[in-house]
Design brief:
The chain has 2 domains: 1-42; 45-89. The chain has helices at residues 10-38, 52-62, 68-81. The relative contact order is 0.10. By secondary structure, the chain is an all-alpha fold.
Length: 89
């Protein structure tokens, strides 16, 4: 069984999309079954924690990473877009 077809044309890309969608459905069902067995409830949407990007930025700066300005720009864009209502989806 072939899961990944070389994307040389539209039909191959479409087939890969269908395969990926099917794989995601199977993955989601397995997660639900595992959660049910572990007694974990699905409480619906999980909202984006407002401070998590700031914490990430501080951690990256402390580690000497060079992408801190990109993180700050991402935070600015998220705040302008829908920072309060964003879900982890």
């Amino acid at each position: 069984m072939v899961f990944d077809i070389s994307e040389t044309d539209h039909n191959a890309r479409r087939q890969n999309q269908v395969t990926m969608a099917a794989a995601n459905v199977i993955k989601w069902k397995r997660i639900q079954l595992t959660n049910d067995e572990a007694g974990i409830e699905n409480r619906g949407k999980v909202f984006w924690e407002k401070g998590c990007m700031e914490i990430y930025k501080e951690n990256q700066a402390r580690r000497g990473k060079k992408n801190v300005n990109q993180i700050m720009e991402t935070i600015r864009i998220l705040k302008a877009f829908a920072y309060e209502r964003m879900t982890m989806e």
